[in-house]
Specification:
The complex is a heterodimer. By secondary structure, chain A is mainly alpha-helical. Chain A contains 20 helices and two strands.
Chain lengths: 502, 350
């Protein structure tokens, strides 16, 4: 296996293949920065260009577009609070407050470098897990998916910014919104009020873009100040390298968030929208300074960034092993691979192992290239955070509208984005947490679908499945451990105040 | 200093205006319909033709549209724009085209079966037009589907499914999929064991394939191209091939002709396949000028003879078989008037 691993690196450095990978990195860079368009749509647009390419060239071109667009989606999240992709929403939570504090360079350095580390870890797992890919992917079915969605729900209290009751109410509101659309069981339209647009539910991209990005732009309009409300323009490169150093300081957070991304990414049916919040919630639970999360914690930025790209490596696992894509992006990528004459499936783990390993190298190399390219360009981009609102807002408003519209070329998405912006600004004004709402919307549909499907398949016997019991134990731990920590923290505070009074 | 302050104040006002006007212009650009200026014209030459794909990027519909695009551009001499408008089971894209009375150059690439089925079931909610009045340019892909199972399954052939006293656990994505109707039809006409209602709720083909490989379900119905990797690798085994004439080897699979249907069963399955045969249909608004209709239909006929196009389509696992637009237009009213037994079946599962 080792000679194939090394040999596949050589094939990437063939001049034509390497050049196409660079072109792919460029396309992915631009697409990732533009909210709404997304890596999947860009891949679909690019597939016709691969008709005359050899299989390694097509893989290099398409895969680099996909992985790089995921990395650069974080740039607008950090700089303007506008998620480049629905899976980059968690990056906004701490990245944007850091920018407002005048630390855009540090936040970008942290998110891009942690993304690269996450991608490398994801790719390594893809390479190392070749012998166990099949049993791993097959060990997750509807019952396990349902339990994982319940595990995701347990993070509502952690992500409630210190106000659990408001967090629960927002999550409940999110669950209500997730009910809009056709029932996955009966096909009946629910709460669609006669609108065909609502048959597929409320679009996640316009919702997330509005809730975070729209609210941020409205806030800028109302205050008419620069994004960075404190701090002075410093040497941006110093900030970027500080962010890179932070990734080494919080290396365990990078590994943990990457692991969550890889596992959830590898399971077709759950997706990156869930894994980002699970990783972020986990990072907050484990942090020594959870109170800083949501207010510009570099730990939060690192958790979101590492998770975002590690999930891509995870999603490649079922795509390669079974020809079953782990998400929308890999579904389009799979189409591209088929056009290039590559048939994903068991042969990719034996006869065509060279192609699998070349995918690993492309993920690693294109991430390294994009982080270098970003560092070269970001010095200038960071200065935008100090530009006055009246200059920036018109451009950002256009980006928001186009971002919402291009997600499905439907004008109703723009209305959803505007409504979500209003909701976002109201939530900021009256201090209601937004993340539990998004978590409710994302998980509600999945929870309902997999609960009913599980019952249809197993009735109640599923509750005794060992894997279900194992995830159930994790759920219990996720509920009990934060309570236990809170109890200990309270006791420590009481002890210290008692000691002080004595 | 005061002058400077006044100037800044004025500038801020101008900028606020510019924000509003920029937003309005962007909104108008997103919402505006592109008038191709083709009214009264009898040729597409030099005009812009928009093909609205009723599905997200990637997948069979989108791949077909993008494979077709360069050939259509060459044949029509027009600029071709591909636009994805997923949602509403294809109705959003379909309605967009049908109501686009200002743009006769806008077409939808969509599946006609679900629309016909919902009309027959009396569920016309969402259809904003009479489908018999639309302009049909051609249908590029047939039903081309198969019921598949895992290679490890105890059901090795369709005969095993028919003879088994243990129900075959058949699953579907639900939400009006063709397989929702196929399974009760097979259970009823072939006296299969188990309930007529399939297991529903799988999000899509990927999850159905994974569920089959895990052994959670015994099988499902899919377009052959969508499960090409698993069929070619031997992970999935085809049990019943329906209206498939492509290049993927389905050797060993039964065809509809091999199944022991009685006369009424045969009529039902034939009607079912005919209803779902219009799988990738190019539909335009009513009253497209005759010259343009003729040009478009002839272009499609030449494209499906083009070896380069066929090679591209084969690489993308697309099984191309053209039903000419005139035939589609004739077939639509026939499909809207099916045999009484088929209507009964549809009403039972409405």
């Amino acid at each position: 296996m080792w000679p194939e691993f090394v040999g596949s690196l050589g094939s990437i450095f063939e001049p034509d293949t390497f050049l196409l990978m660079l072109v792919g990195c460029g396309v992915g860079f631009v697409v990732g920065i533009l909210p709404g368009l997304g890596g999947a749509a860009a891949l679909a647009l690019m597939i016709p260009f691969t008709y005359d390419m050899t299989p390694p060239q097509a893989v290099a071109f398409l895969l680099s577009i996909w992985v790089v667009s995921a990395s650069t989606g974080d740039i607008t999240s950090v700089l303007f609070g506008i998620p480049g992709e629905a899976t980059a929403a968690a990056t906004v939570l701490d990245g944007y407050p850091m920018t407002r504090r005048g630390e855009a360079g540090r936040a970008l350095g942290a998110v891009l470098f942690s993304s690269t580390l996450g991608a490398i870890l994801g790719a390594l797992v893809l390479a190392l897990s070749v012998p166990i890919l099949r049993p791993f992917v097959l060990s997750f079915g509807p019952a396990e998916f349902f339990m994982l969605t319940v595990l995701g729900m347990t993070f509502v209290s952690t992500l409630s910014s210190g106000n659990v009751m408001r967090g629960l109410l927002m999550a409940a509101f999110g669950l209500m919104v997730s009910l809009v659309g056709l029932s996955p069981q009966t096909g009946e339209a629910r709460y669609s009020f006669g609108s065909i647009y609502l048959w597929d539910g409320v679009g996640l991209v316009p919702l997330v873009v509005g809730l975070f990005g729209g609210a941020a732009v409205l806030q800028m309009m109302l205050t008419n100040s620069a994004i960075a409300t404190s701090g002075t323009p410093q040497n941006p490169y110093a900030g970027i390298f500080q962010g890179v150093r932070d990734c080494f300081t919080y290396w365990f957070g990078v590994v943990r968030s990457s692991a969550i991304g890889i596992v959830i990414g590898a399971i077709p049916g759950i997706g990156g929208s869930v894994s980002q919040f699970v990783a972020y919630g986990q990072a907050k639970q484990a942090s020594k300074h959870p109170e800083k999360f949501g207010r510009g914690s570099v730990e939060g930025v690192i958790a979101a960034g590492a998770n975002n790209n590690a999930k891509d490596g995870g999603q490649l696992i079922p795509t390669v092993a079974f020809g079953i894509p782990g998400g929308v992006g890999t579904a389009v990528l799979l189409g591209g691979l088929l056009v290039a004459g590559i048939a994903p499936g068991p042969d990719m783990l034996t006869d065509d192992i060279g192609i699998t390993f070349s995918m690993v190298w492309i993920v690693v190399l294109s991430n390294i290239i994009v982080v270098m390219l970003s560092i070269a360009l970001l010095g200038q981009i960071v200065k935008l955070s100090f530009v006055k609102a009246s200059w920036l807002v018109p451009a950002l408003a256009v980006v928001l509208i186009l971002g919402a519209y291009t997600s499905s070329n439907n004008f109703n998405d723009v209305y959803v984005m505007m409504l979500a912006s209003a909701l976002g600004i109201a939530a900021i004004r009256w201090d209601w947490p937004r993340v539990p709402f998004v978590l409710g919307v994302v998980l509600g549909g999945l929870t309902e679908r997999y609960l009913f499907l599980t019952y249809s398949l197993y009735e109640w016997s599923w509750v005794t499945k060992p894997s279900v019991i194992a995830i159930g134990c994790l759920i219990l731990l996720a509920i009990v451990i934060p309570q236990y920590r809170e109890l200990r923290r309270g006791r420590a505070v009481r002890r210290s105040s008692l000691a002080a009074s004595k | 200093m005061k002058t400077l302050h006044r100037t800044r104040h004025k500038l801020a006002g101008v900028l606020k205006m510019s924000t509003v006007s920029t937003v309005l212009l962007t909104v108008a650009a997103c919402g505006g319909s592109a008038d191709a200026g083709g009214a009264e014209s009898e040729s597409y030459n030099g005009e812009t033709v928009t093909i609205v794909v009723s599905a997200s990027p990637g997948g069979g519909f989108d791949t077909l549209a993008r494979t077709l695009e360069p050939y259509l551009r060459e044949e029509l001499g027009a600029t071709i724009v591909i636009e994805n408008q997923a949602g509403g089971g294809g109705l959003i894209a379909f309605n967009e085209v049908a109501r686009s009375d200002v743009d006769e150059n806008m077409f939808c690439l969509c599946q006609m079966g679900p629309f016909i089925t919902s009309i027959l079931q009396g569920e016309t909610t969402g259809l904003e037009f009479d489908i018999s009045e639309l302009t049909y340019m051609g249908n590029l892909q047939g039903f081309g589907s198969a019921i598949v199972t895992s290679t490890d399954s105890r059901f090795e052939t369709m005969d095993d499914v028919i003879a088994s006293e243990v129900p075959f656990r058949f699953a579907t994505p639900g939400e009006g999929a063709a397989s929702d109707l196929l399974w009760p039809l097979l259970v009823r006409t072939l006296n299969l064991a188990g309930a007529e209602e399939p297991i529903t709720g799988y999000p899509g083909t990927s999850e159905l394939a994974l569920g089959t490989l895990r052994g959670d379900i015994d099988g499902f119905l899919s377009t052959v191209g969508s499960i090409a990797p698993q069929l070619e690798s031997g992970e999935l085994r085809p049990l019943l091939a329906m209206d498939y004439n492509g290049n993927i080897d389905l050797g060993g699979a039964a065809t509809v002709d091999d199944l022991p249907f009685d006369e009424s069963g045969r009529e039902l399955i034939d009607t079912f396949i005919a209803t779902n045969q219009l799988k990738r249909t190019l539909v335009g608004p009513p009253d497209v000028p005759g010259g343009k209709v003729e040009q478009f239909r002839s272009a499609l006929e030449r494209i499906v003879e083009n070896e380069n196009f066929l090679a591209d389509a084969e690489a993308a696992r697309l099984e191309i078989s053209l039903t000419p637009g005139a035939d589609v237009a004739t077939r639509i009213p026939e499909l809207l008037d099916p045999p009484a037994r088929f209507r009964e079946l549809l009403n039972d599962f409405a």
